[in-house]
Amino acid sequence: MRGLAAALLALFAIGHPASAQDLSSPADPAWSVPQIGALPYDAAGMLIRRGRDLVTATYAHIGPAVPDEAKRYAGNNLACSNCHLNAGTKKFGIPLWGLEGLFPQYSFEAGKEISIQDRINSCMTRSMNGKPLPVDSEEMQAFVAYINFLSTGAKRGEKLSGLGAGKMPELKRAADPVRGKTVYEKSCAPCHQADGRGVLRNRNLPNFGYLNPPLWGPDSFNDGAGMATLITIANFVHFNMPNGTSYTLPRVSQQDAWDVGAYVISQPRPKRADLNKDFPDRLNKPVDIPYGPYADGFSQKQHMYGPFGPIRAAIAKLKAQQKKN
What we know:
By secondary structure, the protein is mostly helical. It is built from ten helices and four strands, in the order αααββαααββαααα. α1 packs across α5. The chain is globular and about 55 Å long.
């Protein structure tokens, strides 16, 4: 998902990559990513370093194969940094900076206000296909310390640039997983394998993690993860893949990113229980959530692959009717 999204080679970008979002804006003039190496080796500094290690080598510390069974919180051998690139410090690589002042916040998915700990545990139970970390655990404290450290110098409530995975124009048509399979076989399979299972660093020691992570299959993120939605994975691929690509010079065309994203999310992966309880207010359910129920009357297939314009129009109409009533 970064690592986790496909390693693709570009053909040609369709249109200007920044046409839907200004990705070329200068860095925030009063803020930059703080340097963890400058921290003292005191208790606070060590906790922050521990948090970074948990992000970059999740599998080795809380993965399903770690020696201490009580520490097996993650249900797969992925790392948080497979999605949050460069330990959560890459612009439009789903960075972790600037989050300290954004929580608590209301979550449409949960239908209530959530804390930063709640948000971390959402990743634990979805992207990591595991179980929640105890809020008072050393691991949770380390995660929070590292995320807060990455917000050093940011004003509370300020939304820094570069969050998320970028935003390219959507297709007028549905994304095509059949065409996406061709793109995958040519450009992604050399890294992530034809069967999407990725490449372990050591086949005999899964807690060493993946050199190239799986995009589907039993050791991948589950169907409730953000990377299992088309808009997220397509933008992530376009602006970050092959791994190391800069968002300023995408190497995967927009059309290829949409289609290969559709192919990846069409593949089998672990199932999360009780997804029907997500987004209790159906009118605030994102258009690309690939599981129902829905309030708009469109099929699951269209919610998976688009086009999303008609869905947004229907939801806007329903919200307007609701407001009148």
